[in-house]
Amino acid sequence: MSKLKLGIACSAENRDLYLGKEDLARLAKIADVVIEEYDVPSDWVNIPVDPQVEAKFARFAEDLEVLIVFHGGPRVTKPIFDAAKKLKFVGELEGDRFAGRIDVQAAKEAGVVVVDTTHSSSWPVSEWALALALMGLREHARFRDIIANKAMSHHDYRTKPPARELTGKSVGMIGFGHIGWRLREFLVPFRNEILAYDPYAPRELADALDVNFASLEKVMTCDVVICLAPDTAKTRDMIGEKELALLTPGAVFVNVSRGGCVNVPALIAKAEKNDAWFGLDAHNPEPIAVDSPLRQMRNVFLSPHIGGMTVEAQPRFFTLMVEELERWHAGAEPRAQITDRVVAGRSGK
């Protein structure tokens, strides 16, 4: 089997951070790899297109069969697909789960497979979601009181135990993608009833992963509610006063996805009632406002949107892409394809 012609476009800094030597060696077994450095400033949403850079990028891509882009690399636009007639596979290492650096519609029209391996960070995010849920059920502030010498007597432990267990509780997930699938694996030994709200998730997953899909209102009544939804026009302020009012007394609400999914004034008002526990890794704005009342509330645990940032996650973006290419080169379909269903979830349509 002949080797693939494969190009990688990124910044010099991110080349060293993301492209591990062992993974490059694996990739070299199936592809002749060339790396071209760019320095396109961008965020998760806005990747500017400079005509001169685009023309240079088109020349780089014109003989490639595979093109991989990530931080610092240009956007893969329709002119790139028009120039790269041999292109069959385009991937992004960390495209916020929706291949933001790739014109997915242009790729579809050109018959090019699109793959995004952002789910490398989904694994640690699911771990952090579980940790926040456990801390909420353990009513973390009460432990801090004990450490601060606000002692509890033996009688207090028996009449008002300072913690609850996750085992047997109902767990609701708002959004059921890569993070939710991984979290579902972690919850197996806890024997939870799992309810998920996600209009875009294939309903076949219900039987395969032993979850029940339900309305947002129903999911909000679970003992533990975990927000895993992406930031789209449809999800912004999706969880407001009406939804938060559905939380049962003592419920735990966790947000490890995007702060914009939750209406902040409604969140503050609900937390002030002190009848639920909150574990918040995602905020709006970010960083969380210095004067936010949430910073001072005993029933709120805050972290600075670091759920996906681990030593293991960053190099794994490329490791997963290499695995996808090995799989595809051997004749199987990539697992992390950007399909019409994924695009619909991103657009909120």
TrEMBL record:
InterPro entries: D-2-hydroxyacid_DH, D-isomer_2_OHA_DH_cat_dom, D-isomer_DH_NAD-bd, NAD(P)-bd_dom_sf
Keywords annotated in UniProt: NAD, Oxidoreductase
GO molecular function: NAD binding; oxidoreductase activity, acting on the CH-OH group of donors, NAD or NADP as acceptor
SUPFAM superfamilies (alphabetical): Formate/glycerate dehydrogenase catalytic domain-like, NAD(P)-binding Rossmann-fold domains
One Pfam short name: 2-Hacid_dh_C
Domain D-isomer specific 2-hydroxyacid dehydrogenase catalytic: 51-337
Keyword flag NAD: yes
Tagged with keyword NAD: yes
Segments forming domain D-isomer specific 2-hydroxyacid dehydrogenase NAD-binding: 131-307
Entry-linked PANTHER family: D-ISOMER SPECIFIC 2-HYDROXYACID DEHYDROGENASE FAMILY PROTEIN (AFU_ORTHOLOGUE AFUA_6G10090) (PTHR42789)
Family indicated by similarity: Belongs to the D-isomer specific 2-hydroxyacid dehydrogenase family.
Name of the featured protein: D-isomer specific 2-hydroxyacid dehydrogenase NAD-binding domain-containing protein
Gene source species: freshwater metagenome
Organism placement in taxonomy: unclassified sequences, metagenomes, ecological metagenomes
